[in-house]
Amino acid sequence: SQPLAGRQATELQSKVVPSKQILHSDNMEMEPETMETKSVTDYFSKLHMGSLVYSCTSKRKNK
Amino acid sequence: RMEASCLELALEGERLCKAGDCRAGVSFFEAAVQVGTEDLKTLSAIYSQLGNAYFYLHEYTKALEYHHHDLTLARTIGDLLGEAKASGNLGNTLKVLGNFEEAIVCCQRHLDISRELNDKVGEARALYNLGNVYHSKGKNVASAGTHDPGELPDDVKNALQKAANYYEENLTIVTELGDRAAQGRAFGNLGNTHYLLGNFRSAVLAHEQRLLIAKEFGDRSAERRAYSNLGNAYIFLGEFETASEYYKRTLQLARQLKDRAVEAQACYSLGNTYTLLQDYEKAIDYHLKHLVIAQELNDKIGEGRACWSLGNAYTALGNHDQAMHFAERHLEISREVGDRSGELTARLNLSDLQMVLGLSYSTNNSMMSESHVVDNSVNGTRPRVGRRHSMENMELMKLTPEKVQNWN
User: Fold this and answer.
1) Which residues on B lie below 8 Å from A54 (Cβ)?
2) Which residues of A touch B397 (CB under 8 A)?
3) Chain A residue closest to B313 (CA)?
4) What mean pLDDT, rounded, does chain B reach?
């Protein structure tokens, strides 16, 4: 009959080889979220006169 | 004069956030809030952008606070479109925080208003968000137990099926609108939903579409995501050669994009794939690459799993000395990170190896002398995994006997 060490080595191999248990990286790659955006200029330009926006931005440029 | 000052600060905040510096943007927006304004629409826009900036900075509690302020304000001034947007943002934030029921209510509100205003773009975006909430909800419940994709309790299956339906509805609209970028996102997440549901062929079809669109846009991150997801799906279809090809593409792109964590993930996936192909030399090669990066990134959990995998691969090759070395290292690391399940696995591996080696070595029981008391609470304390830390998301997966039979 098979020597004990050899038999155990075979058993051990069959135990771990084609993976009854394998570490599988279950790492799904999701797509990014989309956030809704607001801007102060959207609302500002609707609410106030264009000239005020203009004076504001030109003042910034002069700085 | 004060009005202009608040606006100026807000404009600078917007500019900084658009340039990608959300941290600095937040300071300017908060300064703008301090100065204050009587224009509630301007204030609403500032709150909304603060919420989004905190969201991108992963400070979700702060994001929640500001999106909530925005929602309250939008309702107060009767700004319906503003309310829809705030609801959507609040929904996304609640989702990340794991509050799925409230997230659904908010995203549904976004959807209802968009339909009321006949805003097709808003409607599509709300449907995508709803899909994401149901996907997260399903995944969250599923990860509480240890299931393979496709083997799910009913509540998980229901949530994932809803997610798939919302993504499909979204796809119908964005296809009509000709919005390719939105189609790409929907295909990617639809693919992942089919994957969890165990519809691996459908997952492949969706990810192939995602890949096509990513290439159209030259979006290499999205391309890499698609390769990785295709690899995962082919593993479960039992087509390991194909999976290995996709993982190799993932690895290539990860290296080009200089993302070490993703590179490690790809090496790890390749190591596992070559194990399934019973090519243990290649498996060892990739697991060693993974090990090096895990050590470099000080990712102990990844390192432990690399050692576990290496121990198995060396055992398969009959190299028991190396197997012993890595099993011992796995045990050390499992103890260090408090991974009871890993610790038990490592002890069992060691005792198996010891049995074989015990016959060739005389009495080497250095590690095993401590192993009389083996705790039974194996499912007790696995460390929680963080969001978007790819290497920490590796799960210990049991393959069912039927699958193993099918694969061999």
Assistant:
1) none
2) 21-24, 26
3) A17
4) 88
Give B 199-218 residues with CB within 8 A of chain A.
none
**ipTM, 2 dp:** 0.83
Tell me which chain A residues have a C-beta less than 8 angstroms from the C-beta of B129: 33-34
CB nearest to A28's CB, from B39, B232, B235: B232
pLDDT computed for residue B277 by the predictor: 95
Min Cα–Cα distance to chain B from A33, Å: 7
- Judge: B4–A59 Cβ closer than 8 Å, yes or no: yes
The arithmetic mean of pLDDT across residues B298-309, rounded, is 93
- Per-residue pLDDT reduced to its tens digit, A18-39: 333 344 546 899 999 999 999 9
Each residue's pLDDT tens digit, B79-123 = 999 999 999 999 999 999 999 999 999 999 999 999 999 999 999
Contact residues, chain B, for A30 at CB < 8 Å? 135, 188-189, 192
Which residues in chain A have Cβ-Cβ distances shorter than 8 Å to B236?
Answer: none
Chain A residue with CA closest to B184: the answer is A31
Report the predicted TM-score, pTM, of the whole model to 2 decimal places. 0.81
User: What is the Cα–Cα distance from B173 to B185, expressed in whole angstroms?
Assistant: 13
Question: A23 vs B394: CB contact, 8 Å cut-off?
Answer: yes
